[in-house]
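This part of the workshop introduces the protein records we will be handling. A learned vocabulary of local backbone shapes supplies the integers on the structure line. Getting from the letters to the tokens is the skill we practise here. As an example, a complete record with its sequence and its structure tokens follows.
=====
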Amino acid sequence: MKRLAAVLGDQGRKHWQARTAYRRLAKHLNAMPVGFPRSVSGVEKRILRSIFTPGEAEAALHLSYKPEPKDAILARASKHGIPSAEMERRLASMEKNGALLIKNPDGEPRICLLPFVVGFFETQIASMNAGLYLDTTQYMAEAMGFEYLSTVPQQMRIVPVEKSITPQHRISTHDEIRRIIADAGDSIALTTCICRKGRDMLGAPCKRTDRRETCMAFHDFGEMYIKNGWARRIGVEEAMEVIALSEKDGLVIEVSNEKNPSFACMCCPCCCGVFNMLAAAPRPADFVQSNFRAALDSDKCVLCGKCEKRCPTQAIKIKKDAVKIDLGKCIGCGLCAAACKPGALTMAPKTKQRTPPEDYSALMDAILANKKGLVGKAASTIRGALGIKR
């Protein structure tokens, strides 16, 4: 009887320690630039349990969003009772699970903890299952979607599809997808879209494309994907072929909001959870960063309707034999202009041009500096839901 009591007591302690580790990790992640807010249902704890072991959850508490040398992390963990050898083992396991990123500035490895999105959700290519996808969808609807959309500056930005841009635009290099890809050089990883993979598991495939290898990671992110077998290395020419096919399929190009982006997603409103919420907002333009908007030359318009069908946010409508553009809904993706053969639709630069942060660290710093409290996020969400310009 005493032995049984001891076993039950030991199991109870382990269960309590695990619950504590996940609760502390959720709080730690929520303090990051792109947070990890509490939901009504508590589904976020289930997500953490599916990705982190209790030991990894404890180890993650000693990681920052800022890339740091491994020795500094090991020393910090050691002070809190995790021996360096054990911490190294946990870090290696977390890297394979996609929870952290190793950057190599000047050849010196530095480690940082990734946010949930865009971050360690997207790295679950190998381990994705219907349960995790459903949990993530629920969490996005309950809490995370509002967190993501309310960041300032936005974590991602829209770059116009290549065919919508003409030489007259004199477009900045950070808005030109061809230049973004060329600058990535040999560090381009082509991977399966995590959202479309999840939708396939639910028997609800994408309505816009049959392709699944649509997303790309660049630089250190790209090397991480390739190293762990989540993606294959491709060259600039194949990357541009992916972009061309994505334009043809009507996918929106979203890149991380840096001068030299870490990744590029090919999004659609039927699969991407965040984009789905974005498209449903009265003023989607307020929740994205884009330097362009659609412009119409009505004299050239033949009312073919292709622009209306291609627009992912329903910003274009044909009413009473005329094309109407709702600039509050236009996100500057360029899909309408690329499809307009008469040239009636073009992409016009916005009056206020925004320059993205220098790199990933600068982006996270900027988001943290502008991070709103619970009241501020709620007010921003309410204004967005009511269609009030932010």
About this structure: The first strand starts at residue 68 and ends at 69. The two ends are 65 Å apart (CA to CA).
